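Researcher: Predict the fold of Homoserine dehydrogenase.
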Amino acid sequence: MRYIPIIQFGVGGVGRALIRQVLATAEQQARYGFQFVYTALADSDGAVVATRHEDEGLARALLEDLVEWKAAGKRLAEHPEGYWQGDLAALVDVAGWPGAIVVDVTAAEAETVAPAFQRARDLGYGIVLANKKPLTGDLRLWDLLHAGPLRYESTVGAGLPVISTLRTLLDTGDSVKQVQGALSGTLGFVMSALEAGQSFSAAVREAHRLGYTEPDPRDDLSGMDVARKALILARTLGLPLSMDTLTVEPLYPPDFAALSRDEFWARLDEVDAEMQARVASAAAEGNVLRYVADVSEAGVSVGVQAVPRESPLGALRGTDNLISFTTARYAARPLVVQGAGAGVDVTAAGVLGDMFQLAQVCR
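Model: Structure tokens for Homoserine dehydrogenase follow.
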């Protein structure tokens, strides 16, 4: 049996779900002749590190206790087995051995985690990312990450096979002409509600009530999360783009960005008339509105598009994501991937799938 050390940054919702899934798939791991063992967990300012023999790592009972500890809103540093830490690179240095995998399921800024990734590369460790920010910042960090074993499926479609599909197309010599996607469950819900006759403000309020938006819905309505996903797709295609080269349409007027959250909610219905007019204009031509990321050699655009009602994007409803690949081989009928594109369990499953893949190549 080969024991693969896991150094995990982040014990939020996705991080806790990932720990549970790792513990629940011991039998599947054994079929491949390996076992994942947690040697370190870190949150924003604390860590718990294994002191046991390398084939044991953090004990199962301790991991389960840490999951409950974090679910209760406590810090790892405050746990009896935890300590305060502010140096993720040092954690990588002490917590692994050859074949280790560093997993980032945080939303940390790129500069926070970059030194740890540099150390992981120095040591030959694998890296798995659910965090989009390291992949959408400086291209030098992108190059560093790609200088060794790396997987990042969950950065674009949670558990959907988006990156792996794109990589297979490229690796088998297909020519990818265009990637289009509805990459936000929140904005998909809003667009579907507009199609059903709801006002824009009512749709956003309903999405917020159901927990689909961030506490400040502008974090979703800005389109920046979709833009990051689109940039990752573009860079995976080999396009050396940066965030400032993307065209991104927010779903609120520019002056709304400076409003307090309460002011934003109070003035949200000011957007209704314009959105209703756009819905009506699209419907008159047999189209519906969707919030779409469009990636090709010509560049990347993110925003509202009118698409045919009977097209894959037009038929999409609710919070599902959909990504279509138009290629030399899939020209007349694009290759489509569709399903849940958010949620802690499916995102964690996407990360775990990446870990299984890296376990085959990290020795």
